[in-house]
Input
Amino acid sequence: MKQSTSEKVGQLLIVLLLILLCVSVLYPFLYMLAISLNVGSDAAKGGVYLWPRKFTLYNFQVVLGNSVIQHSYLITIARTIIGTVSGLLITLLAAFGLSYRVLPLRRTLLGYVLITMLFNGGLIPFYIQLHELSLLNSFWVYIVPSAFSAWNMFVMMKFIQGIPDALVESAEIDGAHPFRVLWSIILPLSKPMLAALGLFTGVFHWNDWFAGAFFISDQNLIPVQTFLQQLLSAQDMSTVLGSNNNIEALARGSMMANVTLMSIKMAVVMVSALPILCVYPFLQKYFVKGVLIGSVKG
Output
């Protein structure tokens, strides 16, 4: 069908708007990448925007050779894996149980979960609760409080309720118990939704700095995002270098004369952001499919 002039102009404006949006999103990332790959002393002179003027990997060598960053990276990876797996497991089990309409007190339980989704006691009562549970200054403060998400549970429950009842009923007639139904029918059909929720949960755990900043005082337990938050407010290189022997060896070399605090900050930003950006394309097809299915079923 032939488009009118107004429709062509409208589409052109939409394309230009999307291009402008993409540029506004990509430019800060490319700028930080250029600074992280540029000699720090040269970047401090200005004029580096999209491409490094004097290419170097010294900034990443300093960052990846720092024992503090290495340990915070391990904390973040462990937190993301354990937190995502436990969150999906609890969400799936809760959603599957509450999807049974004959479950006793089902409406009461759903109402209770909904209340926790809409209201909370605030930060101070939450802090006191973590203290009473002995979770403060512990690795499990990253896992236990966020192991259950009411929103994820409701989305998952709506998806499970959209699965034809005939599949579940046929399995139950054949003698399958609920866990068999969950493993053989619900779980295989829920992979797109689990991938979407897993991506949400994983990104949350990877990007969260708040818990490490307020609930952890042991520097050996902070995640990389909390370290980055501390680094961005640092005024000297001591926060970055610490007491790592390898870094001290670098500091005695000529390369450290070309490294600045800003170049180190940009390198840490890249190191903390690139892994999740590399994982996202592999889950994108499941993410889009899961979101579309959830929107239709909801």
Notes: Confidence is low (pLDDT under 50) at residues 243-254, 294-298.
